[in-house]
Write a structure and sequence with these properties.
By secondary structure, the chain is an alpha+beta fold. The chain is built from 3 helices and 4 strands; from the N terminus they run αβββαβα. The chain has helices spanning about 10-20, 55-75, 100-120; strands spanning about 25, 30-35, 45, 85-90. The protein has a 4-stranded mixed beta sheet with strand order 1-2-4-3, sandwiched between helices. β3, α2 and β4 (about 85-90) form a beta-alpha-beta unit. It is globular and about 35 Å long.
């Protein structure tokens, strides 16, 4: 099951807003940027550049894995209703990671950025 279109960030103005006015957390594999939105919905954007994976099917595979993680959080009501989240994949080694390692790497970053965004 995919994320509904209403929960995706697609407009360039929204992307620029997140890039310039957001809270950031980094790891070896991921960079997460978060910003409170006024739409009233959780929205997600996963960025995988061609430097990470040349083939589109590998880029899409990585995106699907990350979106799946946030779908699980959404169904367990652990996602806020007013957050824009951008996840940028920084390292080619992510292709070889197990899903559990991806979860272990993303969740602490997500929790850190979420607390920072809620305080503002």
């Amino acid at each position: 099951m995919a994320l509904p279109k209403s929960n995706r960030i697609v407009k360039n103005i929204d992307i620029q807003s997140i890039l310039h006015k957001s809270f950031t957390a980094d790891s070896n594999y991921f960079k997460i940027k978060a910003k409170i939105n006024h739409v009233g919905k959780f929205r997600l954007l996963v960025v995988v550049s061609k430097k990470i994976a040349k083939k589109a099917n590998k880029r899409n595979f990585l995106k699907r894995r990350i979106v799946y993680l946030f779908e699980k959080l959404k169904h367990s009501n652990k996602l806020p209703d007013n957050l824009d989240l951008m996840i940028i994949i920084k390292n080619k080694e992510v292709l070889d990671l197990q899903f559990a390692k991806i979860v272990d790497d993303i969740l602490p970053l997500y929790k850190y950025v979420l607390t920072k965004a809620k305080k503002s």
